[in-house]
Design goal:
- The structure is a single chain.
- The chain is mainly alpha-helical.
- It is built from 17 helices and ten strands.
- The strands form four sheets. A three-stranded mixed sheet has the order 1-2-8, covered by helices on one side. A three-stranded antiparallel sheet has the order 4-10-9. Strands 3-5 form a two-stranded antiparallel sheet.
């Protein structure tokens, strides 16, 4: 591997083929990790990117202030990514301090452990209702009927999204996260639909506020704008506690998308992992209190995020003897870091009793997942209800027939057929 590449990403090391990362993720990552700490690949937007594979490097770069999330720091022609309008793109996944600090502070109180714990009983009731609906069938696609339903109900209830408006959200999310090559316009259409959805929803909440997170955020936005904290036209200047209209809409978009997408696959992947490990499954069935401790190992072993959010160095940085020029795209391989034997003992084995610590499934540093307490609670509650209700839970297809979504961005099943 050459030691450098030009800032535009047109020259430099030969690109590593990403097909094995889709076909057989963990063995492919092991080969890359053993070969070196950094590799040049075709990124999620098809353009060259640097993939960081080893735990210590990935963890350090998550918190390194020398690499930015804001796409304005990408070198010209280096990155395209999602084509989102400002009303959806002005979110925490594209922000650095001080904007990131300001906007995060406005929403973090919604996800404190204490506030999330108050939601546990309502979430348990939703889980029981979803299981009631499928129990007599004896079999189901658990991803579609349960793991894919619970998070959207929970996050929509938190934001105050009416039930009638929830039906299209999974299709929009899938179109963005896992684009269908046969439908090249689907992602663009989904973006347009989501922008209309959030714009109309905020207008309704502004006219008729309720006791929900989105109404609270609208009050913060409008009160500050009225007090000189913004001009009411989406042009907040980023000082103090100001929130622009684009930031408000983008926050709603991010909370709903992230709160849905990652939790769906965290639950489904965890169910599959437990079905693959019947001894642990039985232990947790007999003592569901162990789910809290098992969360970290489940998130490490088969977490939903293969990659961290793309980043852009503000200056040339060196990783393992490789110089990455400023402005090039850096991808942090969480999935590879989680299987790094230099940090985790026997990393390819699932064992919640080892007390492994330091997983990066929820990020690290200032961009640590805002909804981490909610994700933990939802997964624990979902699994506890499922294991109690369906003691005979088993896969309904041969294990080798299960299919993973064809993307290097995320780790999620297409379906999870089970019987009980």
């Amino acid at each position: 591997m050459q030691n450098t590449a030009n800032a535009a990403g047109t020259d430099g090391p030969e690109l590593v083929d990403t097909a094995p990362l889709i076909e057989d993720l963990y063995p492919a990552l092991a080969k890359l990790r053993e070969a070196g700490p950094v590799h040049r690949i075709a990124g999620t937007d098809g353009r060259p990117a640097w993939l960081v594979t080893r735990y210590e490097d990935v963890r350090r770069l998550f918190a390194d202030p020398r690499i930015a999330l804001d796409k304005r720091h990408a070198a010209p022609g280096n990155y395209s990514g999602f084509s989102l309008p400002p009303a959806l793109d002005t979110n925490l996944l594209n922000m650095d301090p001080p904007d990131h600090t300001r906007v995060r502070r406005l929403v973090v109180k919604a996800f404190t452990p204490g506030r999330v714990e108050k939601m546990r009983e309502p979430v348990r009731r939703v889980a029981e209702e979803l299981l009631d609906a499928i129990e007599s069938d004896g079999r189901a696609d658990l991803l579609a009927a349960y793991a894919g339903q619970l998070p959207i109900i929970v996050i929509c209830d938190l934001l105050g999204v009416p039930q009638r408006d929830r039906r299209d959200f999974r299709a929009w999310s899938d179109a963005l996260i896992t684009p269908d090559p046969a439908r090249p316009r689907a992602a663009k259409e989904a973006v347009g639909s989501m922008l209309r959805f959030y714009t109309e929803l905020i207008a309704k909440k502004r006219a008729e506020p309720a006791d929900d997170l989105l109404s609270d955020l609208i009050r913060v936005r409008d009160d500050e704008a009225g007090d000189g904290g913004g001009n009411g036209n989406g042009d907040g200047d980023g000082d103090g506690g100001r929130l622009s209209e684009d930031e408000l809409t983008s926050l709603a978009f991010l909370i709903l998308l992230a709160g849905y997408e990652n939790t769906v696959h965290l639950i489904a992947n965890s169910v599959l992992t437990l079905l693959d490990h019947p001894t642990v499954l039985q232990e947790l069935r007999e003592d569901p209190s162990g789910l809290a401790a098992a969360f970290d190992e489940l998130a490490r072993y088969e977490g939903p995020a293969s990659l961290g959010i793309r980043r852009f160095p503000l200056e040339d940085i060196e990783i393992g003897g490789v110089t990455i020029p400023a402005g090039e795209t850096v991808l942090l391989s969480v999935a590879s870091a989680h299987r790094d034997p230099a940090h985790f003992k026997d990393p390819d084995e699932f064992n919640p009793h080892l007390g492994r610590s330091g997983h990066l499934a929820l990020g690290h540093g200032i961009h640590y997942c805002l909804g981490a307490p909610l994700a933990r609670m939802e997964m624990e509650t979902a699994l506890a209800a499922l294991l109690r209700r369906f003691p005979g839970l088993r896969l309904d297809v041969p294990r080798e027939r299960l299919q993973w979504r064809p993307t290097i961005r995320a780790r999620g099943l297409i379906s999870l057929p089970v019987a009980w």
